[in-house]
Specification:
The chain has about 600 residues and is α/β, with parallel strands linked by helices. It is built from 24 helices and 14 strands. A six-stranded mixed sheet has the order 10-11-12-7-13-14, sandwiched between helices. Helix 3 packs antiparallel against helix 5. The radius of gyration is 29 Å and the shape is elongated. The N and C termini lie far apart (about 60 Å). The chain binds adenosine-5'-diphosphate (ADP) and magnesium ion.
C-alpha cells in the first residue's frame, strides 16, 4: 500500500461512516475541520514560509462577521438589491469576507513583511488585538453581544442544517485545500515558497521575487482563515468577539507547532489533538480534582511544554515515519517531457563580452573593499579572479551579481547597464552564480534545490500549480534539473537531502542549480574548496566543457594548480585593487604577484 492509497482509504472510510457517526463525534470533527483549515494556512506561513502570525483568529473573525452582517442587517440586503433572507446572502458574505481579508492581509503584509525579525509577529499581534476590540465596540456588529440569527448555509437549494450536513461541506473544503496546497508545494512555485524561510538571498539570485511570494503566502493563509470563519459563523448561527481574540490566535499557532509546522497533515493532527485534549481535560479534570475551575488551561499549558520539548518538529513527522515503515514507496511519476515547455536562451557569440565591470568600488564604512576594479568576462572563456584572503573577491562577486550595489562603477550584462538592479534582474538577464558559503535548502532534495535554479524558465502560477495544470511544464523543469545534476556527476544523489552531502558536493549542487537557469555567464565563488583531488579533476573537466560550449565563466579560487590549469585569463586582486592581469603564465611570473603572494598568506604560488 502506498501513502496515497492509505489517504484515499481513510477518506473513503470517513465517507462510509459519516452517516452512522453520533452527533457528538461529528460536532467534534466539524470543529477540528474548521480549526485545521486555519492551521493549514499557518503551516504554510510559519512552518514552510518562515513567517509567524499570532493574528489568524482575527482573519477568522473577519470571515465570520462579514457573513453575519450581510445575512442579518436589513440595509445590507437592500444595499445589494436582494430580498432579505435570500439564500444568496451567505455567499455574498463569503465574497465580502474574502475581499476584506485580501485587502487587510495585503496591506498588513506590505507594511510588515519587508521588515525583518520580530516585526511581523508583533504586527500580527497588534492587528489581532485591535480587530478583536473593534468587533466588540462597533454598534452595528452588536458590540460584545455579537450578532445572532444567522441563517444556515444553502448549496444549490439544499440547506445544511444539521452537523452531519454542514460537516460534509467543512471536510470537503478541508480535503480539497489539503490537495491544492500539497500540489502547490510540489511545484515550481512550491520550491520558491520553501526558499522563503532560510534562503531568500539565494532565491532572489534564482529570480524569485521573495517579497511578493511572502505577501502572497500571507494572503493565502488569511483567506483560509476567512473561509473557516465563514463556515464557523453558519455552524454556530451567531457570532461574538470571543472566539477571535489573541489567545485563540496563539492556540492556532500551537496546533500548527504540535502537529508539525512544516507538514500539511500536521495541521489536521494538531487541530485534532488540541481540540480533543481540551474537551477531554474540561470533562475529566473537575471530577479528578474534586473542584471546579479552569484547571484545563494549566494542564494544557504544561502538556504543550512537554510536547514542544520532546518533539520540536511536531508529532506528524514521527507518526509519518512510524506508519511509513509499513508503506510502499510511490512509483516515480514520469510525465511526458518536452524541453520545449521551458524558456530557452541563445548563447552570445563566442569571444563577445558578456559581463563587464568598469571601475567598481565598494566601501564598507571606512574600508574600501573594492577599489576601481575593472574586468570583463567573455563567452567561451574561463576568467579566474585570484588574490589573498580578504582581497575583496567575494565583495566583487556580490556587486557584479546584483546582491550588493557598488559605491561607484558600472556593471554591464550583455551590453545592458545593470547598475542598481536587483539580483533578480541579473538572473533574468542570464547570470548564474554560486555562493562561497553554500546556500542550499538543506532539508530538501538535491533535485528540489537544482529545480529552483530553473525557476525563471517556467511561468505557471499558483492557481495552475494548485489545480495540477502545470504538470507538463513541471515535468520539463524536473527533467532539466535531473540532467544538470547528472552532468555535474551527482546522478546518484538526486533524491538525497542536500544537507546530507559533503560540503564539496554541496558546492557542485550549487553549480548544477546555476546551470539549470541556462545562464550566459556563470560566477563561481571557490567551487573547488573542500573537494578531494579526483573530484577537483572532474570539476575542472566540467568547467572546461562548459567553456567549450560557449559559456562565459568567472571563477574565484584558492587552489592555484586548479586555477592555472583551466583559466584562459587571470586577474589578481590585492587589498581591493587589481595588481595584475593576463594569461596564467604571465601572472605566475609577474614579480608584483609573487611579492603579494609570498608576503601574504599563500605560498603555493611560488611552487
Ligand atoms: P575575499 O572574498 O577576497 O576573501 P571579501 O570580499 O570577503 O574578501 O572581503 C573583503 C574585505 O571586505 C574584508 O576585509 C572583509 O572583512 C570586508 N567585508 C566584506 N563584506 C563586508 C560587509 N558586509 N561589511 C563590512 N566589511 C565587509
Ligand atoms: Mg571570498
Amino acid at each position: 500500500m502506498t501513502r496515497r492509497q492509505l489517504t484515499l482509504g481513510a477518506i473513503g472510510l470517513l465517507i462510509a461512516a459519516w452517516g452512522f457517526l453520533p452527533e457528538f463525534t461529528v460536532t467534534m470533527l466539524n470543529y477540528i475541520g474548521l480549526y485545521a483549515l486555519v492551521t493549514l494556512g499557518l503551516v504554510l506561513l510559519t512552518g514552510v514560509g518562515g513567517m509567524t502570525s499570532f493574528g489568524q483568529a482575527a482573519f477568522v473573525g473577519l470571515g465570520s462577521y462579514a457573513t453575519a452582517w450581510f445575512c442579518t442587517a436589513p440595509e445590507a440586503a437592500a444595499w445589494i438589491g436582494v430580498i432579505p433572507e435570500s439564500e444568496l446572502l451567505p455567499w455574498i458574505g463569503l465574497l465580502a469576507g474574502l475581499v476584506l481579508s485580501t485587502a487587510v492581509a495585503w496591506f498588513l503584509g506590505s507594511v510588515t513583511l519587508r521588515l525583518s525579525g520580530h516585526y511581523l509577529p508583533l504586527g500580527t499581534i497588534a492587528w489581532g488585538l485591535s480587530l478583536y476590540f473593534l468587533f466588540g465596540n462597533l454598534e452595528f456588529l452588536g458590540g460584545h453581544t455579537g450578532i445572532a440569527g444567522l441563517p444556515p448555509l444553502s448549496v444549490g437549494g439544499f440547506t445544511l442544517r444539521s452537523m452531519h450536513q454542514l460537516g460534509i461541506m467543512i471536510w470537503s473544503i478541508l480535503l480539497l485545500t489539503l490537495w491544492a496546497l500539497h500540489n502547490l508545494l510540489d511545484s515550481r512555485e512550491g520550491r520558491a515558497i520553501r526558499s522563503l524561510k532560510t534562503g531568500r538571498v539565494m532565491a532572489e539570485s534564482m529570480g524569485v521575487d521573495t517579497a511578493r511570494y511572502r505577501i502572497k503566502v500571507f494572503v493565502l493563509a488569511a483567506l483560509l482563515a476567512c473561509v473557516s470563519g465563514w463556515m464557523y459563523a453558519h455552524l454556530q448561527r451567531f457570532v461574538n468577539p470571543t472566539p477571535f481574540n489573541i489567545g485563540i490566535g496563539i492556540e492556532y499557532l500551537f496546533m500548527a507547532v504540535v502537529g508539525g509546522a512544516g507538514y500539511l497533515w500536521g495541521a489536521v493532527l494538531g487541530a485534532a489533538l488540541i481540540t480533543l485534549m481540551k474537551q477531554y481535560l474540561q470533562d475529566i479534570l473537575p471530577s479528578l480534582l474534586g473542584a471546579t475551575g479552569n484547571f484545563e488551561v494549566i494542564v494544557f499549558g504544561l502538556l504543550m511544554l512537554i510536547v514542544l520539548q520532546r518533539f520540536p518538529d511536531g508529532l506528524w513527522p514521527k507518526l509519518a515515519a512510524m506508519v511509513g515503515r509499513w508503506l510502499d514507496r510511490a512509483p516515480e511519476v514520469t510525465g511526458q517531457v518536452s524541453e520545449a515547455a521551458l524558456a530557452a536562451r541563445a548563447l552570445p557569440e563566442v569571444g563577445s563580452v558578456v559581463l563587464g565591470a568598469n571601475g567598481i568600488s565598494k566601501r564598507f564604512g571606512g574600508l574600501l573593499a573594492n577599489n576601481q576594479v575593472s574586468l570583463d568576462v567573455r563567452a567561451g572563456e574561463i576568467h579566474a579572479l585570484i588574490g589573498p584572503n580578504g582581497a575583496g573577491k567575494s565583495t566583487f562577486f556580490n556587486v557584479i551579481s546584483g546582491v550588493d550595489d557598488p559605491s561607484a562603477g558600472v556593471v554591464t550584462l550583455l551590453g545592458r547597464s545593470m547598475t542598481g538592479r536587483s539580483s533578480r534582474a541579473f538572473a533574468a538577464a542570464g547570470l548564474g552564480r554560486t555562493f562561497q558559503h553554500v546556500r542550499l535548502l538543506a532539508s530538501r532534495s538535491v533535485l528540489d534545490n537544482v529545480g529552483l535554479g530553473a525557476h525563471l524558465r517556467g511561468h505557471r502560477g499558483w492557481i495552475a500549480a494548485m489545480l495540477r495544470m502545470d504538470r507538463f511544464e513541471e515535468a520539463a523543469l524536473i527533467s532539466e534539473a535531473r540532467r544538470q545534476i547528472e552532468r555535474c556527476g551527482l546522478g546518484s544523489h538526486v533524491q538525497d537531502m542536500a544537507g546530507s552531502l559533503a560540503l564539496g558536493q554541496q558546492r557542485i549542487v550549487e553549480i548544477a542549480r546555476a546551470l539549470a537557469s541556462q545562464p550566459s555567464v556563470l560566477l563561481l565563488d571557490e567551487p573547488a574548496a573542500g573537494l578531494p583531488y579526483q573530484e577537483k579533476q572532474a570539476l575542472a573537466a566540467l568547467l572546461t566543457q562548459l567553456r567549450d560550449e560557449g559559456l562565459a565563466i568567472l571563477v574565484v579560487e584558492h587552489d592555484m594548480e586548479f586555477v592555472m590549469n583551466i583559466a584562459d585569463r587571470v586577474t589578481v586582486l590585492e587589498f581591493g585593487q587589481v595588481i595584475a592581469h593576463g594569461s596564467p603564465t604571465q601572472v605566475q611570473t609577474d614579480p608584483v604577484v609573487l611579492a603579494a603572494y609570498l608576503g601574504g598568506d599563500t605560498v603555493e604560488m611560488a611552487a
